[in-house]
């Protein structure tokens, strides 16, 4: 847009029309949905170097409006992207905090499971010892 504006102001619009920048601008004008039909026709006529093309002042005005709209749209999109990035970073931090908390809970429960396993083995050994003692006591009582 800036290159087109500069070329038009210098009076070298016919040279500009033959550049790849002009072709890109033409694609933008064709694809841009929020441009009015009269403005689209005027810009395309200018970019195609037609005789019915409006004066360069009209073209500059249309392009200035388009540039303002595109600049605003870019600023809005950039702000939305920055907001989305900030929200994502907050979510990520929250999830990492949650993950640490859950990992700590898993470690605590794993340690508890290990302790209970050891207690169970000790209790089974005590039960076995108690059974042996009981048998020995029964034998001793039976002899007496």
Mean pLDDT: 88
Helix-and-strand structural type: mainly alpha
Q: What proportion of the residues is helical, as a percent range?
A: over 70%
Shape: rod-shaped
Query: What is the overall number of helices?
Result: 5
Low-confidence blocks of residues: none
Question: What is the ordering of alpha helices and beta strands?
Answer: HHHHH
The counted number of beta strands is 0
The description of the largest β-sheet is: none
**Overall domain count:** 1
The rounded Rg comes to 41 Å
- What proportion of the residues form beta strands (DSSP E)? under 5%
Distance between the amino and carboxyl termini: 115 Å
Describe the structure.
The protein has helices at about 1-10, 15, 20-30, 35-45, 55-144. The protein is an all-alpha fold and about 140 residues long. α4 crosses α5. The protein contains five helices and no strands. It has one domain (about 1-105).
Question: Which key phrases capture this entry?
Answer:
144 residues, single chain, 5 helices, 87% helix, rod-shaped, mainly alpha
């Amino acid at each position: 847009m800036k290159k087109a504006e500069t070329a038009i102001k210098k009076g070298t619009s016919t040279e500009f029309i033959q550049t790849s920048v002009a072709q890109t601008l033409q694609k933008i004008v064709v694809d841009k949905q929020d441009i009015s039909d009269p403005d689209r026709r005027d810009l395309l006529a200018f970019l195609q170097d037609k005789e019915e093309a409006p004066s360069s002042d009209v073209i500059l005005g249309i392009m200035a409006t388009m540039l303002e709209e595109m600049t605003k749209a870019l600023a809005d999109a950039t702000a939305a992207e920055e907001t989305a990035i900030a929200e994502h970073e907050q979510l990520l931090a929250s999830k990492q905090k949650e993950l640490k908390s859950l990992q700590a809970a898993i470690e605590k429960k794993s340690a508890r499971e290990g302790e209970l396993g050891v207690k169970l083995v000790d209790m089974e050994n005590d039960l076995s010892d108690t059974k042996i003692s009981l048998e020995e006591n029964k034998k001793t009582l039976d002899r007496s």
